[in-house]
Amino acid sequence: MFTSFTGNTRRPRQVNLSGRKTHAFGSTGTGAGSQAAIDRAQQERAQRQRERDILKGAQVIQRIYRGYAARRRIAEVLRKEWDAAEEDSGTGQLHEISTPYTSAEESLAQLGKLVRFANIRTDDDQRRIRHYGLRQMNTHASHPISLVGPWVSRYLRLQSLVLTILYQQSKRPEIDSDVLLDYLHVLHFLTTQLPSQTAQDSSSFYFILASLVSRIGSTLERPEGGRVEGGDASTALKVALETVIVPLKHVTGYTTNAYESFGYAFLALDVMGAVSTSPASKIRGFLADVVNYKLLANVVASAIKQSGLRSRRSFENAIRKSGLHAHRDWDDVSSRLRLLGSFIYFHRHAHNFGNAEAYSAHGDFVLVVSTLLNSLPSGIVDDSYAGLGDETGSRSAPPAVEVNDFVKEQILSLVNQEGIGNLLAGSTGSQQASETEKIEEARQLANYALAVLRFFPRRGDEIRMWLYLGSSTGGIPSRKPTIRYFWEATKRSSVFSTILRDSRAAVSLLRPKDHHENATNSGSSALGSLWRPAQQEVDKAAQIADEWRVILVFVELYSFVLKVTDDEEFFSGGGSRDNALPLDEIKDLSTFLKNLGFTLYFNAADINVSEEAEASSTSLSFYNPTVLEQVEVQKKPITEPAVGGVSGLSLDYIKGLVTGLIRMVYERDSRRKFLPENHWLMTSRLDMTGFISAVVEEEEARNRLEEEEDEDANMDDEDGQDDELQLIGTGRAQQQRRIEQLQRQQRRASRRRYLQQVAPRLEILQNMPFFIPFTTRVKIFRQFVADDMTKRMSADSDWRTHQLDLLLGGRPTRFQAEIRRGHEFEDAYDQFYQLGSDLKNPIRIIFQDQFGAAEAGIDGGGVTKEFLTSVTNRAFEPSGSIDMFVTNDQHLLYPNPSALEELKESLKQAGLAPGSDVYRDEILDLLRRYEFLGRIIGKCMYEGILVDVNFAPFFLRKWALTGGSSAASKESSYRPTLNDVRDLDEGLYQGLYQLKTYAGDVEDLGLNFTVTDTIVVDANSTPKKTKAVTKDLKPDGSNIPVTNENRLVYISYMARHRLQNQPYRQTAAFLRGLSSMIDPSWLSMFNHSELQTLVSGTHTSIDINDLRRNTEYGGVYVIGDDGLEHPTVQLFWKVMKELSDGERRAVLKFVTSTPRAPLLGFATLQPKFSIRDSGQDQDRLPSTSTCVNLLKLPMYKDEETLKEKLLYSAFSGAGFDLS
């Protein structure tokens, strides 16, 4: 076949003219061809260019050297002329410095020569500069010189030379005090002559003086008393400080420049933070006496307002341009602490360390302090109040920063009632203030309040109380209440209005605004210097951050107010202090919180997108042997979280804050409905068709992650043991283990982010469950239980062995117990306590009658139900000894707060010494009984068995707060409120409420911060013999009177003692047992009323039609093929429909032992509601077997007889037996 149109099949010859390889393995060409010529031409051109560059470089070098040599020759000539002019013709030596120049012209000529040839690297020129300066001082003293013409520029050049020499002096190991003093006198003289010019460009001036003062001040701390080579350092320090204040005292057009440079250079010095007993503290006192604080505060505040703490970098850049090396003193925590302490000290000194109200009323002070507080880790100076406990129940490890007494004293002075309470004293309350001014003012005050709350977490309640009380106790009638002030500022914010309209918009508003911070923090990096966001974008981000601060301060304060506000005051929309909000505005607030809270949990992965990107960029390579070194060397500085652009604001913090407040508002609405129906539901944001299955999948994913977490924890423990061996020759193995440990840490962080991403529905259910309908949550709960049962049955070999033993008639196992009638709780505790969480498994119960004989019957589930109901009835009934549970005025149960104290008192009366083994065992036994009772209640909920036990709402609220992603363990997340006190003790509530609203002087009541507990010491006497025990509510509480100012704290402490501290161990033991049966995260899906419904059934009316549809019949009553009910059964349902709801409940309790219907209807009742015949005797009463929910109904002929007999049995309990 022809390959071309020529008709010739011969392959044409290939000719290569380029010199390139024709194929990969061919030889290099000979260099002939057009391309080779081009390459040679390019090489020759590059060679000629290099030769020209070398020639040009040589010319530049020669030119520079010739210039340098010429200048050096000229300098030598000028130096000789200067020396000749300075020499005394008689002695040949330099004139004495006390000899003034004969004329101003001679002095100016000598100065001109000196500044031209002087080289500070040579000692001789330094002596010439020193000589001229001292002589010129005497010249000026004898005949003053008018600084006109070239005098100013030459003086400035001389001043620069003297500053550079002083900087070199400050860096020397030893300082000659006489020489240093001479230079300082010269500098002081020059600065006095040029105050305006010095202030205009004062960066280097104050930087060098700060270095020198710091160096001299450090010598004063030495044991030899501040002696330096050649003399006393105190004189040099005095002259240096006098030089410092010269540009500050002279008011010129550049005085603000001087104050700015002074603040940057001096406020963060080590000597400025010296303790008061140190000699160096005199430096601080001297400067505070002469510095104009208002001007200093204004300048620093203006700089911070413009560019934050980054404003100092312009100062640093100016220093570097002068050839000096400036450290970034504000980048470390210690320096910022000293800066904050010094600034507060100057403020307090200006107010004579009094008038604390002015601390927060000064706008510049508020701005500077809040900015610095937000840049520091929280709690580092709050150690003295650690005993009061953290407001959040958590305690983070303090950073490794040493805070001396002076800095701590200054920062702690911020926390005082006058300063915080009068935060709004300087606010513009006039109507003439513009909207912009009001918004800006609210932002600044909110920033300060939030900064103080964040920095002093253990004094949060006090700070909130002072803010709450401040607007009412300041003596200014026109001042707006704090709550209303920040609420109106919140409503005006764009963040509030945006989220109020659209919950999805909260994602972008919450996402950390760290792009400009990262660019700035990179310092001199290429990225930081090349990229800057648009100023409009920066301003918008700053506005959003400020609005978030206003909102968060309002949420903090309103959460505190709701703790001490009862329902009457809340629903009145006013209150004694006019801090309550109208109900229509609370509706808007609840909608905002609902939208915000939903987004915080459901879209957490979208909000933390930057964190995920950072984590994904730090993956490890298994094939790089230097990966560990690279990871360790390239560690990035830890950046603080900045949710919404607010520095230091973490997502967990805002989650906890919003969750806490929205729960409080929801509880008010659940107690007394004031919001529309279905107001809390967020089903519009969720796909409810597959919601339950999706939640179940998320729960399985969470369980898998927890198992992986446990495995990694075990691996860490093993690695820790291996690292202790430090075997020789195992470096590579140790390195590999360290890499694996780092990978596990990354996996943990990834799992947390993954859980936020894959389990948003679970997060919603555990933290804000009321967003989902109650029936849906109950179905999810039952599905969780069913899945757990299946998992346990498939994995528990003990239970399978137990079942096999029962079938084969083998020996009893640990899941079987013999229970005596009348001793149900004691026998169950003795035989089942050791099971622990295995009590979830099915158990077999054999009841014994009063004669010890086993009752006949096969436990198909009914006997277990009878057992559980009997145990609960026995455990919660009053006894002749220590009652584990007591009731309030509404006959609702809660743990006996004084149970432990009563047991201890009885043990002491029995002669047992506290701390003995028997004494401890008795205490432990009581707590174990509480724990076991918690397991029994959990077993009932696990099995879906309803028991007629009603708990107090405040106690049930602790159940609901044991779960959730951000809740602490046990009951530490529970926060007592005044309404909880009312549920506990109506008398105590009335007393506290009267104290809160008392119009007179509370101190006249003679109360102090103590509480008196009453414990029973003899339960058998009539009446019971009691004993009063007085305890302090806070350290030294007996010496702290209750006043109008601290009464809210007293109420808060009293509620915390009664509801949380006193019953803590009993409650914790009960919840420990409950959580071993029911996962705490499952309990967190319900509020207190819903949990009561899970325990004892719904309070809604009994649905007879639903009960009829789900009833089974036995004996004669079995429905035949015709599908018709027996006539007696028809009469029964007719009578049930005619009964009142109370009578229906009595019948239901008569049959099932509980008067309430199951949560999801009678279809879920186990065992099923059943009816069977019991003969035709018309005088016989109906009877029941509650263990199997069976009604034994005689075949009555008429409706009247059936109704009479049924109600008689239901209300009297007659006819009860056990089949």
TrEMBL record:
Biological process terms in GO annotation: protein polyubiquitination; ubiquitin-dependent protein catabolic process
Keyword terms, alphabetized: Transferase, Ubl conjugation pathway
Location of the region described as Disordered in the Swiss-Prot/TrEMBL record: 1-47, 701-722
UniProt entry tagged with the keyword Transferase: yes
Domain HECT: 835-1219
EC number(s) on file: 2.3.2.26
SUPFAM superfamilies: Hect, E3 ligase catalytic domain
Matching SMART domains: HECTc
PROSITE patterns according to UniProt: HECT (PS50237), IQ (PS50096)
Active-site positions on this chain: C1187
Compositionally biased spans, kind Polar residues: 1-19
Reactions this protein catalyses: S-ubiquitinyl-[E2 ubiquitin-conjugating enzyme]-L-cysteine + [acceptor protein]-L-lysine = [E2 ubiquitin-conjugating enzyme]-L-cysteine + N(6)-ubiquitinyl-[acceptor protein]-L-lysine
Top-rank lineage group of the source organism: Eukaryota
Database matches in Pfam families: HECT
Pathway where this protein functions: Protein modification; protein ubiquitination
GO molecular function, one term: ubiquitin protein ligase activity
Protein name: HECT-type E3 ubiquitin transferase
Species in which this protein is naturally found: Sporormia fimetaria CBS 119925
